[in-house]
Design goal:
The chain is an alpha+beta fold. The protein has one domain (about 10-150): 2-Layer Sandwich (Beta-Lactamase), CATH 3.30.450.40. About 35% of the residues lie in helices and about 25% in strands. It has four helices and six strands. It has helices at about 10-25, 30-45, 80-90, 140-150; strands at about 50-60, 60-70, 75-80, 95, 115-120, 125-135. The chain has a six-stranded antiparallel β-sheet, sandwiched between helices. A hairpin with a 2-residue loop joins strand 1 and strand 2. Helix 1 (about 10-25) runs antiparallel to helix 2 (about 30-45) and helix 1 (about 10-25) runs parallel beside helix 4. The longest helix is centred in the N-terminal third of the chain and has 16 residues, at about 30-45. The radius of gyration is 15 Å and the shape is globular. The protein starts with 10 loop residues before the first helix and ends with a helix. It binds methionine sulfoxide. Methionine sulfoxide binds near residues 106 and 133.
């Protein structure tokens, strides 16, 4: 069995290690779901965030959950709704330091305290978003944004 090896201490260095291993692991894989689910697993191993998953664009108005690692996620999210639907609509990464302060946040679990949602682009179109939730406030910053935007290019 393969594991993600994290040997460094700063978050940026850890993301770099994670990214390089992911590039190698995904090297020969062409199936998008296999790539997405492997990315979720690798992020979980590296950082052990509470909930890590994709919402895929199903049609022009709706996201559908999966693949993900964590407790039950909401199945569908409408465009412009919640953090995920807002990141999709605005076509940019959203960092939410405190989910209770984000107007319209969709609470799939009361454990989640902060969140980052990163759009996944293919041919200049958003095909999914990556949603990561933490049980701690202020868990995500510009370093997470920078590296997660790079990681989702591997989808
Ligand atoms: N909180 C998200 C919904 C998805 S769950 O956190 C897994 C949102 O507001 O879009």
């Amino acid at each position: 069995m393969q594991h993600i090896q994290i040997t460094t201490t700063t978050k940026a260095e850890q993301y770099k290690e994670l990214y390089e291993q992911l590039v190698h692991i995904l090297d020969q894989e062409t199936d998008m779901i296999a790539r997405m689910t492997t990315i979720c697993s690798a992020i979980k191993e590296a950082f052990n965030f509470y909930w890590i998953g994709f919402y895929r664009v199903l049609n022009e108005n709706e996201l559908v959950v999966g693949p993900y690692i964590g407790t039950l996620g909401c199945l569908r999210i409408q465009k412009g709704k919640g953090v995920c639907g807002t990141a999709w609509k605005l076509e940019k990464t959203i960092i939410v330091p405190d989910v209770d302060k984000f107007d319209g946040h969709i609470a799939c679990s009361s454990v989640s305290k902060s969140e980052i949602v990163v759009p996944v682009f293919k041919d200049n179109q958003i095909i999914a978003v990556l949603d990561i939730d933490s049980e701690y406030y202020n868990a995500f910053d510009e370093t997470d944004k920078e590296w997660l935007e790079k990681i989702v290019e591997l989808v």
